Every structure is written in structure tokens, then in C-alpha cells.
Amino acid sequence: MASVTLDLSSASPARPAPVNLSGLTRTELQAALVASGLTPPDKARMRASQLWRWIHHFGVTDFAAMTDVAKDLRSGLAEHFTLARPEVVERQISKDGSRKWLIRTAPGIEIETVYIPDVGRAGALCVSSQVGCTLNCTFCHTGTQPLVRNLTAAEIIAQVQVARDDLEEWPSPREERRLSNVVFMGMGEPLYNLENVAAAIDIIADGEGIAISRRRITVSTSGVVPEIPRAGALTQAMLAISLHATNDELRNTLVPLNKRYPIAELLDAIRAYPGLSNARRVTFEYVMLKGINDSPEEARRLVQLMKGIPAKINLIPFNPWPGAPYECSDWATIERFASILNRGGYASPIRTPRGRDILAACGQLKSESEKVRASVRRAQAPAA
């Protein structure tokens, strides 16, 4: 049988996926419009502002909906760019009104995002910054999922957009909004993805778009000490610290990152956080673990640690997950702990567990995607 050779020399190369304008900062949006040839440089700022309001104030996903943009330009935008939302793989609603979405932004890239009503001014969206996590905090379900990769700014913004879609909050409301706060407390360590987190916050806080004030945006870290002051300078967001222990020995176990950045270094970095004051207090998060960190002595040591730092301390009842090695402290124990902190001069609200029935509470997030070794992927790939 004669062999046949296919000549593919004239085949067109695969066209790259269109850029999603939803994840671009204003500066990046201007540059993308100029690079596409659709907008001359002297018109780029005006055109970018026009598109910005359609994308982030009105929440449109189709260029055709931009009624004050010329039809030929709308056609060109659709050819070069996209506004598509990622796939919502699963949507769950808790009996307490919390909502959780499993969002797939690319093959094998899945993240969980949670909306919690009655938090902040109206309701808070807990967003993820990474797929998986490297920190291995022993009380956190996300820590059992290996890191896959950082999320892009577009993937972070997409979480806000998906929530706004589901809550029917377009155009972006100024009053009576249900989504009033954003907290970077989902999957991952935000300060290990600071550039993308900062870009996303710039978009979220922009007054002509989503318009959530930086004082209603909180970035939580387990203690990446060198990045804490820089995070304040880049984001001007509120700071939260995942603390959970008052001594290095225990914190080394609960938050292994402490072995690299012990408590004393962490507190020094917090004191250097730009804008820290009684009006902009740092929030310390302290998960209550039965028989581990919940004694009156621990509460008194915590008061001593906080001296000189404008702070409040959120006490978080431990939220169980399958295979968890801890139990939640008894309610009476948590209340006694809180009263000691209050007498020491620190507000110490006890966070009401929300979304436990759908594994949407603090420390329970974990997507279905796991890091797969390249060798396994190759073995699973169909033969050429």
C-alpha cells in the first residue's frame, strides 16, 4: 500500500484565545484597544471609559448590548475580545442563605466562591486567589489540596461577576446592595499572588464600575511577612491575619508558615502596614479548637500580644470537614475566651458559622480539581 504524505505547510496556525476584557485594568484596557487597531491612541482613554461602564457597572457579557458604541466597533470588539463568564459547574444554597459556586475557568482549573449574607454592611463575597494552597494549615480543608496555580486578575474578577449575576445586582447598585464587601479569604494565600490580587482590587474598587470601597475589601494572610507592608501600599485594603495561636510552638503546627516567619516578625510587619489606625484596624482571625488553643491562659496571652496594635479579634468556631483532626470548642468556652479579650480592651465578635451544610464555611473550601503530575497527564492522553 502506497504511503501518503500530508502537506500541512499552508495550514493556518491556531488562533489564540481572545482576551477577556473583564479582567483588565483601565490602563491595560486602553493598551488592548490600541494594540487591536480598533482605537487610535488619542481616543483610547475615552473609549476605555465607555467600555468600562458597560462591563463593570452594567455587567454586560455581549458587545452587542453596548448601545452607544458604533456597530462596526462592536463587531470588531467581538472579533478580537470576549466578555464571557466562566462555567458555573455547581451552585449550592445553604439553609442560612449562604451561596457557594464551583467555577471552572479553564480545563482542570476550578475554584470555590462563597457569598455570605448579613456580613459587613449587607453581605460579603469570599473570593479565592489560588487553585489549592501551599500552606498546609492543619485545620483548613483547602490546605489538603495541592497548589495548581495562581489565579489571574480576570479569574478573580469573574468570581465577583458570577455572584453579581446570581444575585441580580446589575447595574452595580450604590444603595441597598446585597454584595457590599469582598474578602480574600477563599482558596489560597493572597500574598503569594499579590500582583493579580492588587489588579483585581483596582477593578473592584473603581468608582465607575463595581465600586466597592477599599475599606470594604479585606485581604487575609497567614503571615507572608515580607509582603505585608507591600500589600498595604499596593491595595490600600483592610488587613486580616490568620493567627490561631499565641506561641510559636503551637502556631508551627497549626500554620506551618510560622516556622519561616515567627510571631514576633509577623507582628512587626503588621505594625508597618500602611494606614493602620483605630479607624483602620487589623483583624486577627482565631479559629477555636477544642483543647488546643481555647484556654483562658491563651486568651490572656493573646491580649498581651496585641498591645499597641489597633485590632479586633474574630473568634471563629472550627468548621468540621471530612477527616478533620480537630473539634470545635464548646460554646461556653468560646464565650469565656471572648469575655477575657473584651476585658482586655479588644472587640472579639464570635463569627456565626454560615454555610456549614454545603461545606461553604471558613476553612471548608476545596475544589474538585487536584494537581496532576505531568507524567500522569501524558499517560492519560490518547495515543497519537
Note down, in words, how this protein is organized:
The protein is an alpha/beta fold. It folds into two domains: 64 residues, DNA polymerase, domain 1 (Orthogonal Bundle), CATH 1.10.150; 272 residues, Alpha-Beta Barrel (TIM Barrel), CATH 3.20.20.70. The chain has eleven helices and 13 strands. The strands form three sheets. A nine-stranded mixed sheet has the order 3-4-5-6-9-10-11-12-13, covered by helices on one side. Strands 1-2 form a two-stranded parallel ribbon. Strands 7-8 form a two-stranded antiparallel sheet. Helix 4 packs parallel to helix 5 and helix 9 runs parallel beside helix 10. The longest helix is centred in the first third of the chain and has 17 residues. It is elongated. The C terminus is likely disordered.
Quick take:
The protein is of the alpha/beta class. The protein folds into two domains: 19-82, DNA polymerase, domain 1 (Orthogonal Bundle), CATH 1.10.150; 87-358, Aldolase class I (TIM Barrel, Alpha-Beta Barrel).
As a whole number of angstroms, the C-alpha radius of gyration is: 23 Å
> How much helix, percentage-wise, in residues?
25-40%
Under the CATH scheme, the architecture of the largest domain is Alpha-Beta Barrel
CATH topology of the largest domain: TIM Barrel
In order across it, which strands form the biggest sheet?
3-4-5-6-9-10-11-12-13
Query: Major beta sheet, specifics?
Result: 9 strands, mixed
Specify the CATH class of the largest domain: Alpha Beta
What pattern of helices and strands is seen along the backbone?
EHHHEEEEEEEHEHEHEHHEHEHH
| N-C termini distance | 21 Å
* Secondary structure tally, helices: 11
- How many discrete structural domains? 2
**What does the overall shape look like?**
elongated
Give the percentage of residues in beta strands: 15-25%
Structural class: alpha/beta
> What's the count of strands?
13
Ranges where pLDDT stays below 50 over 5 or more residues in a row are 360-384
Name the CATH superfamily assignment of the largest domain.
Answer: Aldolase class I
Arithmetic mean pLDDT: 87
